[in-house]
Amino acid sequence: MTGRKRGTRIAALVAMVFGGLTILSGGTTIMGALDMGAVVPFVLWFNTAAGFFYVTVGVGLWVGRAWAFPLALGVLVATVLVFAAFGLHVVRGGAFEMRTVAAMTLRCAVLAGVALAARHGSKGR
Description:
Blueprint: H1 3-30, H2 41-63, H3 68-91, H4 98-123
């Protein structure tokens, strides 16, 4: 297995596991089984839905689909826009948890890494 393919496979696994955990935590919070404090509803719903796209990107990377990169990039851009809207919510005095700031920062970083790996992986095809 080439280094490029290995990196793509690792990124695929990261995307699928990260997506699965996102769906699990978001779903349990939405269903009321997990109290996360001052939840910002649009962030919670977006992140939960985005988890399905992380998994889809991961599957696409794993099987070598060319659409994995544009999808990963689209999810990253959408996440950055939601993060910006969250920032506006905070600036306007809306209730929030600091862990949301950390979680959104982590999401952006992970998605940027996955998108980068998808871009490099698609160059080798």
